[in-house]
Amino acid sequence: MTPPSATSASTTSTGTRTGAARWPAGSRTASVRATTRKFATGVTVLTCGRDEGTHGVTVSTLTLASMKPPMVSVALRRDSQGLAALLAAGTFAANVLGSRQDPLARHFARSDRGEGLIRPGRGVWAGNTADGVPLLGGAVGWLQCTVTRTVRAGDHELVLGLVTDARLGTAETPLLNFAGTLHRLPAPSDPADDTNRS
Fold it and tell me: What percent of the chain is helix, strand and coil (3-state, nearest 5)?
């Protein structure tokens, strides 16, 4: 493979190189962390368990792994309480957060978040999956999943989940994670408004 510095750089008529890749300073780990922080990702809360044993964890690693059959993958730290709860339950819901749900993302990212429906408050929950996993209200959408296998990946475990049901939510725009900060996207403009401006 040709290194990025060779493929992305060009030379002007004055001999000056333009567009060359800029490698982050420091160790490889620091470079990887600095580069991957530039990925813009959606924010999802995985919920599992039932009633007072309900557990939730915020992730930005959820991705579609397959369409036939529909499967998602998510990477969780091998020593995390989120992974332990997910594997113990065997089923989980992926709550894709809406742009106004940053308080929920922060809550479920805390190490002292605890369990049960009273955390972060009963008012944020809205129904359950067919197998009883509580869902967060106001999301972009929900995926009901069954854990099919896990794959060890360094200090993380890659969890593969078979999607057994999917529903669209009420939020129109997702919450994004970029450079370690949560970002609210503006609501999509009304096509009628765009027509009136032209």
Answer: 20, 40, 40
